[in-house]
Amino acid sequence: MRAVGSTHIHSKKINMANTYHQIYMQTVFAVKYRAAVLDKTWRSTIQGVIGNLINETGCKTIIVNGVEDHMHCFLGLKPAVSVSELMKTIKAKSSKYINDHSLTKERFEWQEGYGAFSYRQRDVDQIYKYVQNQETHHQKQNFRDEYVGLLKEFEIGYEEQYIFQELI
Q: Residue 113: which of 45, 14, 29 has the closest Cα?
């Protein structure tokens, strides 16, 4: 007797695990209006909070890092977790943490939207180093150019008006 997903041998059911995954993803998201409010004195704390939020979803944090106006998360995505739900959770709960702990002078918000980019196993070390070295990287390139560069590299169509907005 045979059933989908299991085998019966002498009336004993044996489950056959056939789900394997390796989904590496980098997400990038900005502070509302790209305000430079992620202060260096507490930025590592919020990076830890974001890393814990990722892990709580069943995904695996590889590294979280950023600068004053945006964050990068490099993670192993669990197939049962949608990228949109993951980002909604990360942004909502980290904003709440920042506001509950009065880390900014005014009410903190992340800007709408995010970028999500997938990678192969062989790219893991390179992307880890890239995320790890954000401060050095942004001494040479601003956030907007970095983000548009990622969109172009991944051949993602975009509309200029929807790229992370700056305060006018």
A: 29
* CATH number of the domain within which 94 lies: 3.30.70.1290
The span from the CA of 110 to the CA of 77, in Å, is 21
Q: How far apart are CA 25 and CA 75, in angstroms?
A: 5
**Which pLDDT tens digit goes with each residue over 5-50?**
444 444 555 555 777 889 999 999 999 999 999 999 999 999 999 9
**Is 123 inside any structural domain?**
yes
What is the helix (H) or strand (E) element at residue 49, kind and residue range?
A: helix 40-56
Task: Count the domains in the chain.
Answer: 1
Q: Is residue 160 part of a domain?
A: no
pTM, rounded to two decimals: 0.85
Contact assessment for residue 76 and residue 118, using Cβ atoms and an 8 Å cutoff: no
Q: Other CB atoms closer than 10 Å to residue 157's CB: what's the count?
A: 6
